[in-house]
Write a structure and sequence with these properties.
This protein has 99 residues and is of the alpha+beta class. The chain is 61% helix and 17% strand. A 3-stranded mixed sheet has the order 1-2-3.
Length: 99
């Protein structure tokens, strides 16, 4: 069974994007968006690892939200791995940027 989900980009993301270009803060906006993307990527890959159903991903300015459509009380180790993958992806991004 395929795990097909929607990616919704919020109106305020576009607004913040345009404002960042007009004010000369485009580079900072992109860096913060990439950091947020890698953060959510940790949740997404962890969820896919345990076959959680992802309903949608909402992209907000300087934030993202992954909405899982799965039961709330999963096994503790599954929740732990989905949570711990986030700092691991943040560390990978940090090391990639510093090289």
């Amino acid at each position: 069974m395929k795990n097909i989900f929607k990616i919704k980009i919020h109106f305020f993301f576009y607004l913040a994007f345009i404002i960042s270009i007009l004010t000369g803060n485009f580079k900072i906006f992109i860096i913060l968006t990439l950091i947020t993307f890698f953060h959510e990527l940790g949740h997404i890959i962890g969820g896919l690892l345990f076959k959680y159903k992802i309903e949608k991903i909402v992209v907000l300015p300087l934030s993202m939200l992954t909405i899982f459509n799965t039961k709330i009380n999963n096994k503790w180790y599954q929740e732990f791995i989905v949570t711990i993958l986030v700092p691991l992806f943040q560390i990978l991004l940090f090391n990639f940027i510093n090289y």
